[in-house]
């Protein structure tokens, strides 16, 4: 976690400033942190660029990041370009930490997507491109590592053209690629070929430009064209493509010149509205919320409403920026804020920001059981993990109260190692992880319905609940609906039903979460509080929310059984690159691991295989790779989809009272 402020100096707070919150995104090792460092150097924030290889960069500040040479948490560093404050947000590229990228996406004005000129487009690059496009985030492509042997910027540029369906606008040309003198030369704004291509790119989206382009209208002046281009860049309709090197600095000046064209002024007059995108603790344990403001101003000691309607007063507000004044943060800026109570990542601050809250990346697909080396440290371990879960909500701490087991969701083995190292370094806790297992999901096959009625055996509860379940499209989530009048019973009972439906769906018929479905309440009934003939409230004659909570899981499981569910396992897209000579044994191993190669290409020495592999086998493949390829193979994978399991569906040990077994369930409830 980087809690960093660059040289704070006194300066009046400008009424409205131009800010560019710029995410640096890429596949692992593409050079994001190095490029961030180079930009800070170009922006005059540091006198010499640090290096990830010696562990002295501005954004990789965690001990673990420095020792491992990878970014784990996103970090903010700021500099000015003329009158624009640029907040660079360096993100991790390793797919195990993709959740960090997810949190950052919601606060970006623009992104630099870094691609290596040597390794080219990777599965993770494609994932990022898809998401940037879907969220309509203005993007620049920076083809990095121009100085490295084997750099093929033209080849990679063509790959990007194909991936981005020709929305790219090549911004210059390269000389001496593959050596320390590699350079990037931007086209001159008046270069007729360049002007032509800008017209062409703009004409794609703009009728008027199209007419100008095909020639029946006078062409725009240079200034008019630049203004149109800026609008198209800000609207994410055109993606400029540059090349360079984060190490030699080639291309970086051009990037710096281009960035201000993406900045816009945020509405400062509106009521304060922000979003928490990162939570950290300072060395003394004080909670710090990283807030991006979308509108208005947030001041220290001002009252502000946070998620859940609580009213708080920030005790410290520290905006990012080389000359930032502490005490207030205004629209467009990012600040570290103390005193917001226990806000979480994704919470709104002030008026709710008008942002889609939809998740972009898939949730983790792996799970593991954590055990403290010393059993008596279980409580301490739980507290430490809860602490980590606050910074990384997707690790989704799952506890089995009956057996005391602690489970964590994971994206991969590297994340697991990082969590182990953090527990040791920050909390002095030694832990063991059990073998990682895959997190499957359950999908409905058809519709199903079930109901149990009040005072009708075998229903032991004073409640009527009828539910119908229907499968929904992939990624549509869980929706709860009513087919009874809302007024047919007290709101508290409705709430009890919906809450227990949602909780029970976490462990379906086979113990896995049930996803993408609609649950409809079809029958509801209760016994009103008996008070006229009885002096006191008689629980045996009046329904309580507890009756609904107890009955709902039984009805839901019956409905699920009628609908039938299919257990689906996570499958990843993979890209494997290895020497051609290893191809035979590799392909046979892939088939043993149920991987499906779909595309294959090779040049003289190296082969590239792309396809699908079950998440359960990735670790296996990863471990065999060095032997299979003489240490020359590299494997990239990203989650792609859930596919139905072939053969016997795997079960997950339940941590609830098991509503799939009525007798056991009722006896456990009675005992509780
Ligand atoms: N030759 C050369 N090496 C580079 C360049 N950019 C980065 N590197 C090297 O590539 C390696 C990875 O660089 P990082 O900046 O850590 O990459 P990253 O994208 O931040 O990596 P993660 O945060 O772990 O995803 C380091 O060894 C860098 O020195 C470049 O332009 N040229
Ligand atoms: Mg990095």
Can you walk through the features of this model?
α6 (192-203) crosses α7 (207-214) and α12 (491-504) crosses α13. β7 (172-175) and β8 (183-186) form a beta hairpin. This protein is an alpha+beta fold and 672 residues long.
Features:
28% strand, binds magnesium ion, disordered N terminus, alpha+beta, 672 residues, binds guanosine-5'-triphosphate, eight-stranded mixed β-sheet, 28% helix, five-stranded antiparallel β-sheet, single chain
The structure class reads: alpha+beta
Instruction: Give the radius of gyration.
Output: 28 Å
Look at the structure and give the mean pLDDT. Answer: 88
End-to-end separation: 42 Å
Shape: globular
How many individual β-strands? 33
Percent in strands = 25-35%
Helix content: 25-40%
Which consecutive residue ranges, at least 5 long each, have pLDDT under 50?
A: 1-14
Instruction: Compute the number of helices.
Output: 16
Associated small molecules: guanosine-5'-triphosphate, magnesium ion
Biggest sheet features: 8 strands, mixed
In summary, what is this structure?
The protein is of the alpha+beta class. 28% of the residues lie in helices and 28% in strands.
Furnish the topology, listing elements before pairings.
Layout: E1 18-26, H1 32-42, H2 63-68, E2 75-81, E3 84-90, H3 98-105, E4 110-116, H4 123-134, E5 139-144, H5 153-163, E6 168-170, E7 172-175, E8 183-186, H6 192-203, H7 207-214, H8 222-234, E9 239-243, H9 252-258, E10 264-265, E11 273-281, E12 287-295, E13 297-299, E14 304-306, E15 310-312, E16 316-319, E17 328-330, E18 334-338, E19 348-350, E20 366-372, H10 378-391, E21 398-400, E22 405-410, H11 413-427, E23 431-433, E24 437-438, E25 441-444, E26 448-452, E27 464-471, E28 478-482, H12 491-504, E29 517-525, H13 545-563, E30 565-579, H14 583-592, E31 596-602, E32 606-614, H15 615-629, E33 634-644, H16 662-671
Parallel strand pairs: 1-3, 1-4, 4-5, 5-9, 6-9, 28-29
Antiparallel strand pairs: 1-10, 2-3, 7-8, 11-12, 11-19, 12-18, 13-17, 14-15, 16-18, 20-22, 20-23, 20-24, 21-22, 25-30, 26-27, 27-29, 30-32, 30-33, 31-32
Helix pairs in contact: 6-7, 6-8, 12-13, 14-15
The protein binds guanosine-5'-triphosphate and magnesium ion (MG).
The site of magnesium ion has 5 residues, from helix 1.
């Amino acid at each position: 976690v980087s809690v960093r402020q660059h040289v704070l100096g006194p300066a009046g707070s400008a009424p409205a400033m131009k800010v560019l919150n710029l995410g640096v995104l890429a596949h692992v090792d593409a050079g994001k942190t190095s490029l961030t460092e180079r930009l800070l150097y170009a922006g005059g924030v540091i006198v010499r660029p640090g290096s990830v290889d010696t562990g002295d960069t501005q954004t990789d500040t965690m001990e673990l990041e420095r020792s491992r040479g990878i970014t784990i948490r996103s970090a903010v560093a700021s500099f000015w370009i003329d009158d624009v404050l640029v907040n660079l947000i360096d993100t991790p590229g390793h797919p195990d930490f993709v959740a960090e990228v997810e949190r950052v996406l919601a606060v970006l004005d623009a992104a630099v997507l870094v691609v290596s000129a040597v390794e080219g487009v990777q599965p993770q690059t494609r994932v990022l491109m898809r998401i940037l496009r879907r969220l309509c985030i203005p993007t620049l492509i920076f083809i990095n590592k121009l100085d490295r042997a084997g750099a093929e910027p033209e080849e990679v540029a063509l790959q990007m053209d194909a991936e981005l369906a020709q929305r790219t606008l090549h911004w210059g040309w390269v000389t001496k690629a593959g050596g320390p003198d590699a350079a990037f030369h931007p086209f001159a704004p008046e270069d007729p070929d360049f002007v032509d291509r800008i017209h062409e790119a703009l004409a794609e989206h703009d009728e008027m430009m199209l007419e100008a382009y095909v020639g029946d209208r006078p062409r725009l002046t240079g200034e008019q064209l630049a203004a149109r281009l800026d609008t198209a860049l800000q609207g994410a309709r055109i993606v400029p493509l540059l090349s360079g090197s984060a190490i030699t600095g080639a291309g970086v000046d051009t990037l710096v010149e281009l960035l201000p064209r993406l900045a816009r002024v945020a509405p400062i007059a509106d009521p304060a509205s922000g979003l928490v995108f990162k939570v950290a603790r300072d060395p003394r344990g004080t909670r710090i919320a990283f807030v991006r403001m979308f509108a208005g101003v947030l001041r220290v000691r001002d009252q502000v409403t946070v998620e859940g309607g609580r009213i708080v007063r920030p005790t410290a507000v520290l905006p990012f920026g080389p000359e930032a004044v502490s005490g207030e943060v205004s629209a467009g800026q990012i600040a570290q804020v103390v005193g917001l109570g226990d806000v979480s990542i994704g919470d709104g601050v002030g008026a709710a920001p008008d942002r889609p809250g939809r998740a972009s990346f898939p949730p983790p697909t792996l799970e593991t059981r954590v055990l403290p080396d010393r059993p008596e440290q279980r409580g301490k371990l739980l507290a430490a993990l809860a602490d980590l879960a606050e910074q990384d909500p997707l690790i989704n701490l799952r506890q089995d109260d009956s057996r005391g087991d602690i489970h964590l969701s994971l994206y991969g083995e590297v994340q697991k190692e990082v969590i182990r190292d953090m527990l040791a370094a920050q909390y002095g806790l030694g832990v063991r992880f059990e073998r990682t297992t895959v997190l499957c999901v359950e999908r409905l096959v058809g519709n199903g319905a079930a109901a149990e009625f009040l005072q009708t055996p075998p229903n032991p509860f004073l409640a009527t609940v009828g539910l119908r379940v229907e499968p929904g499209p992939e990624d549509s989530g869980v929706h709860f609906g009513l087919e009874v009048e809302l007024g047919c019973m007290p709101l508290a009972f409705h709430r009890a039903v919906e809450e227990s439906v949602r909780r029970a769906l976490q462990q379906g018929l086979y113990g896995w979460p049930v996803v993408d479905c609609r649950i409809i309440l079809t029958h509801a009934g209760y016994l009103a509080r008996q008070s006229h003939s009885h002096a006191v409230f008689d629980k045996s004659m009046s329904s309580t929310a507890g009756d609904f909570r107890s009955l709902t899981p039984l009805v839901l499981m019956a409905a699920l059984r009628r609908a039938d569910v299919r257990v689906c396992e996570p499958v990843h897209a993979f890209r494997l690159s290895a020497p051609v000579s290893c191809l035979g044994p590799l392909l046979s191993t892939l088939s043993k691991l149920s991987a499906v190669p779909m595309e294959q290409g090779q040049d003289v020495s190296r082969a590239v295989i792309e396809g699908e592999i079950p998440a359960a086998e990735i670790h296996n493949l990863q471990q065999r790779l060095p032997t299979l390829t003489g240490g020359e193979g590299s494997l990239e994978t990203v989650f792609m989809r859930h596919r139905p399991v072939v053969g016997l569906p795997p079960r997950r040990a339940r941590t609830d009272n098991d509503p799939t077994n009525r007798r056991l369930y009722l006896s456990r409830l009675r005992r509780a």
